[in-house]
Amino acid sequence: MLCLGGGEPVEPTIGERIFQALAAGSNVDFPTVTEICDRVAKEPREVPEAVRLLAGAFAEKGGLPRRKLKALTIMNELLYDKRAEAELRQVHGVRDALWTLQATSNSGLGPEADEQIRMFATEVEKKCFGATGDPFAAPALVPEDPFTLPVASTAPALAPLASLPLSPAKDAGSSMLGALWQVGSQLGSVVKAQASGPRVEIPRIAVRPGVVRPTLDVSFEGLLAGEKVHYAFNPAVLLINKPFREVQGRLLISNYRLKFQVPKGTWKDKLAWIGEKQVLDVPLGLVESLELEAPTSQAGAQQWRLVISTKDFRSIVFLLPTGKELGQAEEAVIALSQPGPAYTAALFAFQHAASVREQTGSSRDDGWTLFDPRREFERMDVEASPSSASGCPWLLSSVNSTYQLCETYPAFLALPRCIKEEELRSVASFRKRGRLPTMSWCGGRARGFASLWRCSQPTEGLMGNNCQSDEKMLEAIRLGATAGRNRELLVVDLRPRKAAYANKVGGGGFESYTGCRLVFGGIDNVHGVRDAWKKMGQAVANLSNDEVGSWFRDVAKSGWYDLIGAIFNCAQMVVHEIESQQCNVVIHCSDGWDRTAQVASVAMLCMDPYYRTLHGLLVLIQKEFCSFGHCFRTRLANGEKPTSEYSPVFHQWLECVYQLLLQFPTAFEFTSDLLLCLAREALTNRYGTFLTDSERERTEQVQPHTLSLWTAILESGPAAEYINTRYEAMGGSLRPSPTQVNFQTWEDYWFRHRVHPKDELDKRFLYVIMERVKGGELFEALKSELALITEQDVARIGLQLFKALEYLHSCRVVHRDIKAQNILLTEPPLLPGRALSKADIKVIDFGLSARLPRECCWRPSDRAFDIVCGTPACCAPEIWATQEGAVPIWKKRFGSRYGAKVDVYAAGVVLYMALLGQLPYHAENSLKLARLVCSKDSFPSFESKDGSHKVSSRCRDFLSRLLEKDPNNRCTAAEAVRHAWLSGRVKRSLPQPIPLQVRSSAAAQAEASLAHCLPECEHHATPKEKSERALALAQAHRDWVQGLELASDSESDSESDS
């Protein structure tokens, strides 16, 4: 901080910060780069000055190579800010300079530094210019001062830089960098002066996080314990772009949320989704940024506009009555949502917990003790006693109980038993932020104590510093697993190779140790995650039902699923090494709390069935993310303004878990609804679970005064929507596929506050999109004069038919109307040759289908239906037995209900008709047909009427199994698929075409049967015709019942005689 004239300290400008960073003898380390990036994010008007200073430094002719490397390092991180990227793109000659730097060699800094310069120059050019331009064109001369040349820009023209008076250099040295700083600083002043035209001043109020606010007597549905409404702006107007609307209502700001209320009935038609998806109910923790605008309407009226951008991609615009109220709204939202780390207690979580505890009269919160390190590691056969003789090479130690060894690690650490405390401290000092290797998971005795370890990068730097204690500890980890003594220790550096080398400039590095096998994981850093996340959100926002769009291209260009694939790939390496080789694995990234937590947690979900339960998932999150120091406050901007370190790492991991649920739908006890709950509550500031960056902060500042989210989920039993009803507890490990073709967009997450295009379809209509099947009905093919059909062709069609039925029955679906008219061919049959030799079939017309109850779907005697339906010629005996007034002996013989095997019988009728040219049972009316089908004395013949055609013995056996009258003895669809006649296991003779007269006879017989048995369509009948038909049907029903009674008597007589 600078102090002028003994007054208040003045924060250095961006130019002063960069000048200090690029000065000789200074180090451009991670905190320095972060400080500059945060300053630019905080003061957007300083972007031009920062960009031009850095560009001038690395483009300077004859400049010091070390200064160029420093400038490129800062610029590479600064370009994650889109404003900086746009500004650099406008600097004349900068791309030529980058091309020149990409050929750097013999700079005097050494080959590794030359490689860094070339790599950073390539990355900066790629981020800024992409693939545009001509990289093979001859580079232009780089001017001494790139600011003196004109800059192509749509901004107002700037005053010539040459005319700007240069003030004396602040430093004694009058280097080129000093001149660049002066010019850049004055350029910033010109930009500010020319960009700020006459505008209305918005009355702003200083943010007061700890002030006592008024409480209004306002209530609404869903008001939480401890929630108080502090401000109500009425009237307020919501601006909607599509369709254009101005909706008047009341804007409420409570200590938990921002809520817009409208009169009932406002959200209807095309705006109904706004109310359904609760778009205008925004927890304050989800507010990312606020913008105040004071434009003038086309009518000349002054408007006071509040623009709210949220962390879940909502953008909401309100008009408030006055500028004073606009300032009040801004101050209230910022103070209650982003009070800063010094005012964490101002967040809603503290007031919510106090109110809940007051209402319940209890301060107990078991959620905070959900993860017990002793209990958890004992489950893995890791003990806490140093004197234990169990043979475990690992020990649960309390060496970090006061957080002195590593302040971002948990109090209890699992470590190699043979490493002494002074060696641990040496290792911690060598690892970044003291995050030494410590165990995350152990396979126990069953896996030879093979385990997974996590840490941060070593601080070897460009000079290759080493630490004997660090090498000794990794050697101890390698030898800890019995199988690892003859195998190198797998060390997975989750960063891209170039990034790992780039970190050496800032003092980082990686393990090039003897006995270690180093693999780079290629997972991008938090800035890449944030960029991919925002691009994915933009891809969702770009979707429209009115145009083709570019959804697949936008999703691919976002790189979001590239990152998820890389995480899966690294997790797969870990699982293979531990499960297949029973060896230990060490993983790390830069700090060991982002990518490391993601990969470790995915790997543990794959290896440990306990973590695949609901309770286990919460323990996993508490252990790997909360206790091991994932920076929830910084990464999710919980309780503070988003910085350059803001990145949805945890939400990316939740989508990884979602992809696992899709690949293994029965392996997890929980559903994606639980993941959605976690994604939301991680940002709302309602619970203390995600408010801090480490276990130490959480234990000291938050835990005594807030509730744990785990309590809310588990206290009264998990909600029904969180439980997977298909869950099957199973041991063993999972091997997820990292291939993106197996990924699916998490629509419930990405579209939770947006309209999915499929939801925009007019709900008054049902749109059915069907496949076009151009071959027509199988029934028509059987009677075609041009078609040649053989027994082998019918067997081919039969195999497809029974595979379709097998699938339907596995889904508990019974078709109930299988017949030749409901089977379509994919190829037209009316062509000379073997019509069915190439065509595939499609089963259609599910109008009569029904679903079996779950409890009887796998029983061979599944009986669930008692409604008579289907085509009489294809009805099984058990369907006739369910008819009202049916013969009692039929019910005794076939039961009063039926199940999936009626489809098998009907399919047998279809194949019988195709092969023999007749129905297995044919009668003049339904009554006679029913008696034939249900009689124990009638059997189908297996040759045509004229005796000219017979089926093979294998085919006869197959048809007999299908047409078996007793459903208990009839085969299932799955058994039919495996029959020798269908499966091709039997060598058949040469194809013999079924005679045309046989097939024509079958078609005519079937048509006659259907004409006599099925009622006509009543859509166009007059009322008089319908009345006459009803009387005729009633008389037919009486005749039917009377006929069944006669049949019952005769059946009973025959039974008694026998």
Explain how this protein is built.
The chain is 41% helix and 9% strand. It is an alpha+beta fold. The chain folds into four domains: 14-129, Serine Threonine Protein Phosphatase 5, Tetratricopeptide repeat (Alpha Horseshoe); 229-338, PH-domain like (Roll), CATH 2.30.29.30; 379-722, Alpha-Beta Complex (Protein-Tyrosine Phosphatase, Chain A), CATH 3.90.190; 776-981 and 994-1011, Transferase(Phosphotransferase), domain 1 (Orthogonal Bundle). Helix 1 (14-22) packs antiparallel against helix 2 and helix 1 runs parallel beside helix 3 (47-59). The model is unreliable at 1-9, 131-197, 856-861, 1010-1021 and 1043-1058 (pLDDT under 50). This is MTMR2 protein.
Rg, Å, rounded: 38 Å
CATH architectural type of the largest domain: Alpha-Beta Complex
Strand content: 5-15%
Mean pLDDT: 82
Short description:
The protein is of the alpha+beta class and 1058 residues long. Helix content is 41%, strand content 9%. The radius of gyration is 38 Å and the shape is globular.
